[in-house]
Amino acid sequence: MEILPNDPLNKSQGTKRICVIGAGAGGLAALKVISDSAYFKSGKWSVTAYEARTNVGGIWLPAPPVADSYGVPLTPLYDSLTTNLPHPIMGYTSYLFPPETPLFPRAHVVQTYLESYATHFNLKPLIRFGTTVLDAQWESSQWTVTLSDGEHLAYDHLVVANGHYHIPRIPNVPGLADWVKNSKAFHSVWYRRPDFIVNKALVVGGGPSGQDIAAEMCTIASVVVHAFSGSGIGPKDPSPSNLIRRGRVLEFRANGQVVFDDGAVEDNIDLCILATGFEMHLPFLEVSSMIKKSMPPDIPPLTPSELFNSTYHVFPLEKHLFPLQTQYPISSVAFMGLLIMVTPFPLMEAQAHAIVRAFADPSSLDHITEAADIVARAENIRRAGASTSLDVAKAWFRLGMDEHWSYRDGLYEFAQGVESRIPPIKATEWEKECGAAMFEMRSTWERLEESGKAEEWLRDVGKNGVQDWVNLMYRVLDYGRSGHDSSAGARLITAPCDVPLMRKN
Q1: How does DSSP classify residue 140?
Q2: What is the distance between the alpha carbons of residues 218 and 220, in angstroms, rounded to a whole number?
Q3: For residues 273 and 201, is the Cβ–Cβ distance under 8 A?
Q4: In angstroms, rounded to a whole number, what is the distance separating the alpha carbons of residues 325 and 476?
Q5: Would you say 471 and 492 are in contact if contact means Cβ atoms under 8 Å apart?
Q6: Per-residue pLDDT tens over the stretch 451-486
Q7: Which of 427, 414, 407 shows the shortest CA–CA distance to 341?
Q8: Cα(16)–Cα(492) distance, rounded to whole angstroms?
Q9: Partners of 127 in the beta sheet?
Q10: Pairing mode, strands 223-227 and 200-204
Q11: What is the Cα–Cα distance from 272 to 495, expressed in whole angstroms?
Q12: Helix boundaries (H) for 362-400
């Protein structure tokens, strides 16, 4: 295959210009790592982020359920949302949550944390708020970026960090379109709190939001049916007495009936909330056909001439970051934060370090090896049970826990050798163990909060650094497994002291 010259951008004079699209968690990580690099500090690089909203935070920045220019709310953030990950694992590697922060914080705490991160690392002067990137087109040797204020600016590199929790995915199920048209069904992007008058509700989707919404709807509806396939994480345990679990929905009928894949039928459904996920959405690259919004051809063989957005995955990407295609240099653009069911903030910091390496030294990308890895991944996904191109696309950005940690380690290994002051960072045993036990830990933490004991457990935790948080997480796990409360002397497990080198404020 023919690849455009890897580095028409390393000019003998002048500044390398980098455009970051979005100032959510991914865009902030990119700004922090780039602005902390020797290239930026020496004046060789410049970076500007464009954020459509008036503050940092992305999905974590609240907004009312009012339609934007795409006909949907700016964020799907609902009032009761708390993190699924304990914040010592969720937070950026370079910046801890404040001492005494609840282990599974509410969304507003995460938003405050992101604002603090941006302030601490002096990132806000690098951001233009209230500005949308409408179009990005590769022309000869640079990206021409068109902004919502009418400006056309030239950049050498793009970092795409616009998130993927904006455009709702509506399943193609017989009868559902009529339910949506008649306001009998709506996507969870519009949900904020359980303030409906309904007798019987249906919640579709077994992910975190589906689980939370089903539990909340049980507080106001006589009966809640929670439908999810085997890939969902399922409802909370123990389940409320008015919650019925069902499998995949096969049909929505006009009379309020819903048919499920096991043949069961539920009658008299008043309202359906679709917690069915979101589409990958890259409109600024579609305008000038820098990406093709369709399913990519089957592989092998891999013949990367174009970049595809199937709405489930962006394909093909080297290291899940760099577009392996021939329209523009592979190292001229990077896509951050597309992976699903991972620890996003620290992973995106790792991605940012890899991006700096590739932008600084495009020859560091091994296209042949990466293409072979992409083919191998497709074959592994098929062996795991994916029988169609759609199945492969749905599974592409879902990493297993072991794969997730090794991917993050690999990004840091790749980043070494570039002009950087960052030491090698590897995932620790406590991250792996506590990450694998996050649902168990969250359930126990919720019981501690309900009993009023959480505040006592948090006292002074974090004032001595990350090891305080590690000890607390193991203590919570031990409490849940032993059945003893804290007053009975829950056993304190001292976790291994293999904390990341950069875990400091």
Answers
A1: T
A2: 6
A3: yes
A4: 48
A5: yes
A6: 999 999 999 999 999 999 999 999 999 999 997 544
A7: 407
A8: 51
A9: 49
A10: parallel
A11: 45
A12: 367-383, 389-396
Task: Rounding to the nearest 10 degrees, give the CA dihedral for residues 187, 191, 195, 200.
Answer: 30
Both structure tokens of 467: 């090891």
Answer yes or no: is pLDDT of 193 > 80. Answer: yes
pTM over 0.85? The answer is yes
How far is CA 236 from each of CA 208, 212, 239, 244, rounded to the nearest angstrom? Answer: 10, 8, 6, 12
Both tokens of residue 388? 């169609």
- Asked if 172 and 193 count as a contact pair (C-beta separation under 8 A), the reply is no
- Which of 55, 76, 52, 51 is CA-nearest to residue 65? 76
- List, in sequence order, the alpha helices (H) in 302-428: 344-360, 367-383, 389-396, 401-415
Indicate the SS3 state at residue 200.
Answer: strand
Give the 3-state secondary structure of residue 190: helix
Q: Residues 6 or more apart from 231 whose CB is under 8 A from it?
A: 206
Residues with Cβ within 8 Å of 135's Cβ and at least 6 positions away in sequence, in order, are 144, 145, 146, 284, 287, 288
Backbone angles phi, psi at 194, to 5 degrees: -85, 75
The whole-angstrom separation of Cα 206 and Cα 210 is 5
- Residues, the chain, total? 505
Please give the full DSSP string across 267-292, using - where no structure is assigned. ----EEEE---EE---HHHHTTTSSB
Task: Give the amino acid at 42.
Answer: S
Question: What is the band of 342 on the pLDDT scale with cuts at 50, 70, 90?
Answer: very high
The pLDDT score that the predictor gives to residue 303 is 76
Give the CA distances from residue 140 to residues 9, 143, 199, 328, 361, in Å, rounded to whole numbers and listed in that order. 11, 8, 61, 9, 20
* Residue 276 phi, psi (nearest 5): -110, 20
Which residues partner with 19 through β-bridges? 48, 158
Give the number of other CB atoms < 10 A from CB of residue 393. 21
**How far is CA 154 from each of CA 13, 15, 39, 147, 493, rounded to the nearest angstrom?**
16, 12, 19, 11, 55
Q: What is the pLDDT of residues 6-23, one digit of tens each?
A: 333 344 356 899 999 999
Lowest-confidence pick of 1-5, 100-104, 117-121, 421-425: 1-5
Please give the order of strands across the beta sheet that includes 152-155: 133-139, 142-147, 152-155
Burial class (CB in 10 A: 0-12, 13-18, 19+), 51: buried
How many Cα atoms occupy the beta-carbon half-sphere of 38 within 13 Å?
8
Distance in Å from the first CA to the final CA of the chain: 46
CB count, 10 Å around CB of 452? 8
* 410 against 419, higher pLDDT: 410
